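To the wet lab folks,

You asked to see what we're planning to order before we commit. Fair enough. Below is the target structure as tokens, and below that is the sequence we designed to fit it. If anything looks off to you, flag it before the synthesis order goes out.
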């Protein structure tokens, strides 16, 4: 066997060893927070999922958003975006923080609906009768509720 055969063979063996070693390593620890929804098994059907603290005062945009929210969103997502067990998730929840669900994600949800992915309440249909401006106000309301509840 010549020297090149030994070099190539050694490189192949080393590569296989590295790949095998990496495959046997444990998965890296999850960074940041968990996007796992809470256990709702002890909450009665239709009851709020989260206990939402209300801000002392809402901005003008959030006040408008609250009105739109109450007319188009609260029937499913509950009063003050606390969710309703068995119906729809709370929007005042770490899963919906701005770094994970942007304001545009709320726009898209209202416009085209959302396939169920974090929660097991089923798909969300599009919301009829809301403009982009309406949803912008709703998002202002939800974000102010989130901030009051430590979700930034």
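Sequence we intend to order:
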């Amino acid at each position: 066997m010549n020297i090149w055969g030994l070099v190539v063979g050694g490189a192949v063996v080393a590569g296989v060893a590295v790949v095998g070693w990496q495959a046997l390593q444990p998965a890296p620890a999850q960074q940041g927070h968990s996007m796992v929804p809470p256990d709702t098994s002890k909450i009665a059907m239709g009851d709020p999922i989260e206990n939402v603290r209300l801000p002392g005062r809402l901005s003008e945009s959030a006040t408008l958003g609250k009105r739109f929210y109450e007319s188009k969103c609260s029937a499913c997502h509950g009063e003050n975006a606390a969710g309703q067990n068995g119906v729809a998730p709370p929007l005042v929840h770490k899963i919906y923080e701005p770094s994970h669900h942007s304001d545009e994600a709320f726009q898209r949800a209202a416009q085209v609906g959302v396939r169920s992915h974090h929660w097991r309440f089923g798909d969300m249909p599009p919301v009829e009768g809301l403009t982009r401006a309406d949803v912008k106000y709703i998002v202002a309301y939800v974000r102010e509720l989130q901030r009051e509840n430590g979700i930034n």
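Structural context that might help your review: Residues 33 and 83 are 20 Å apart (CA to CA). The mean pLDDT is 89.

Thanks,
Computational group
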